[in-house]
Design brief:
The chain is of the alpha/beta class and 253 residues long. It has 12 helices and 8 strands. Helices cover 43% and strands 16% of the residues. It is globular.
């Protein structure tokens, strides 16, 4: 047996961010590769989730969150961990999501799309939000109630009424844009929110903002933004939407 080679260790790791992704989600990780800067170490784990989205399948994820978080590298020291489910957070509750994730890994902060959306609305001065969801009414209604409790009204609501996650991930940009424009014809609001981490929205946000004359927010966009705000990391340019543009301008001021 030969003597072991000498070696040295690298310096302390850069900022580390964790992401808990639904087993059925096909979009969130792809979007985060575009939104999180390369200087940040991004770690992802998966949590079991149903192929169809119902209040029951969403609530069932609670029992698996700490186990999913425990599968992150044990040496990781996260600045923040995000749970990637808007409707799941509304069903389980943001405080319980944070408790379960902290039980599985070491992190300074936990967020999810609901808390991230509320923070984004505060940053933009939004109190009236148009909500476009892919999901059935029973799922979306819970999200509306949670937002109302935070002082954010959703007087305009529309849905594709799709329950299957595999179909949600394939709703094309043209369909989302058409639905959004139709939704905004009836009542004045401060912004539009495209709900669901599986919905593919990043490429259409700038065009929608130009057409509507309003900020457009989406689950993956606000989650990435909030994680970077918590971790004090600047988003790569150009990141989509007025949310990132205003944050960049604030940093430069």
């Amino acid at each position: 047996m030969t003597r072991p080679f000498p070696h040295s260790l690298t310096a302390a790791p850069p900022v580390q961010i964790g992401l808990v992704v639904l087993q059925s989600d096909e979009t969130l990780e792809l979007d985060f590769r575009r939104l999180i800067p390369t200087g940040v170490e991004l770690f992802a784990t998966r949590v079991p989730s149903g192929d169809e989205v119902t209040p029951e399948t969403l609530a069932a994820m609670e029992a698996h969150l700490s186990g999913a978080a425990a599968l992150f590298p044990r040496a990781a020291r996260f600045a923040a961990v995000g749970y990637g489910c808007t409707s799941g957070t509304a069903q389980i509750g943001a405080a319980e999501v944070a408790r379960q994730i902290r039980a599985g890994c070491r992190t300074r902060a936990v967020t999810e799309p609901v808390s991230a959306l509320v923070a984004a609305c505060r940053a933009l001065g939004v109190t009236r939000l148009a909500l476009l969801s892919p999901y059935v009414e029973t799922v979306s209604r819970r999200l509306q109630q949670v937002l109302a409790a935070q002082g954010i009204a959703t007087p305009v609501f529309g849905s594709f009424e799709v329950a299957e996650e595999a179909r949600v991930a394939r709703i094309d940009g043209a369909s989302i844009m058409t639905a959004a424009e139709s939704l905004l014809r009836t009542e004045e609001v401060d912004a539009l929110f495209l709900s669901c981490t599986n919905l593919r929205t990043l490429d259409i946000i700038p065009a929608l903002e130009a057409r509507l004359g309003l900020p457009v927010l989406s689950s993956n966009q606000v989650l990435a933004w909030h994680l970077m705000e918590i971790a004090a990391v600047a988003a790569p340019a150009p990141a989509p939407g007025q949310l990132f543009a205003r944050s960049a301008a604030r940093r430069e001021a």
